[in-house]
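Annex B. Sample input.
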Amino acid sequence: MLTNSQINPLWNEKKIKNYLPHMTAPEVDVFLTKSDLVIIPIGALEQHSSHLPIGTDFINGVEQCKLIAQERDILVAPVLMAGQSPYHMAFSGSITLSAETIIKVHIETVESLIKHGFKRFLFMNSHGGNSAITTFLVDQINQKTLGIAVDFGVAIKPYLKSDNNQKPKVLDRHAGTGETSDSLYLMPDLVQLDKAIATKLTLPKHLENMLSEVINEEPTAKLLFLSEALKSKETGKKTSTIEMTKTGVWGELDPKEATVERGAMNINNIIQATVKFIDKWNDLIGN
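Annex B, continued. Sample output.
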């Protein structure tokens, strides 16, 4: 029996069921006798103000996938931490990759897993800036490989329970109360809520004029707002993060208003919706 002095003092990770980085090759073989389904989170390494870690999108995505994999047999296979984040590059530590790189890495991942016998792929985009990439990636896999891929957000949407009580009355997005609440539930030791700072947003006037309709989910206003807002400084749109918020929080609420209860409710809603989708997919193909 090893004593504490004989092992890495920083090690505290426990083996997680169905989590590929923890599995042995024989364990993957056993898994394949039960399921050919894989979930791959696509995250980011980017600033999340002073209270959330740079790895928030990646870590939260992986943790959600792990929780789903305890409910159903689905292989959790994260392969890339960074995503597309050019608009955050004014903040130290942020990393951005090209869309071409992200797509190439994930297509080669799918091709590798197909060789082992996996066939179905669920892509969880846990970073808004990867949305278009995820849509294109799913299409390319379906068009060019033996795999069958679906977009996680699209897949679970019909099964989510709506909760109008949690919808903010002001803009509350990146590193705001929603994301902070989810983080308090998923990775509590990495949230420094005492360091959270409320911000004052500075938006181009025409985007500021759209805000009330965006907050009320008016589809055209939201589409146009997100097409222009939060874009690289090099585009000249004046909507990079640093041009809109000096703290890195893209929202008008104080992140200190986040609660673990709100995070738990949101994440459990997502998990249960995913379980229902997986059950339906399995049922439709006779698994």
